[in-house]
Amino acid sequence: MLKYPLQELVKATQGQILSQPYESFANYSADSRTKQNDLLFIPLVGENHNAHDFVEMAIDNGATG
Fold first, then answer.
1. pTM above 0.70, yes or no
2. Cα three-residue angle 1-56-13, rounded to 5 degrees
3. CA-CA-CA-CA torsion for 28, 34, 39, 44, nearest 10 degrees?
4. Whole-number mean pLDDT of the chain?
5. Contacts of 16 (CB under 8 A, 6+ apart)
6. Which terminus has fewer CB within 10 Å in the chain: N or C?
7. What percent of the chain is predicted at pLDDT more than 70?
8. CB–CB of 51/43 below 8 Å?
9. pLDDT at residue 54 is higher than 80
10. Interstrand relation of 24-25 and 4-5 (parallel, antiparallel or unpaired)
11. Strand-strand pairing, 27-29 and 24-25
């Protein structure tokens, strides 16, 4: 199974690691309703929405990052 290393994602997005319980993820999604373990949830922010409001839902659905 292909894994996405967290350090590479941080570098590519110029992001910041706030905690690091996992070093890689098998999949990623910007949809908090996606139900899958080993998933990196990417909360997008736009003019009319802020997906950071749905981080808890993503975790409840199995997101690990």
1. yes
2. 55
3. 50
4. 86
5. 10
6. N
7. 97
8. yes
9. yes
10. antiparallel
11. unpaired
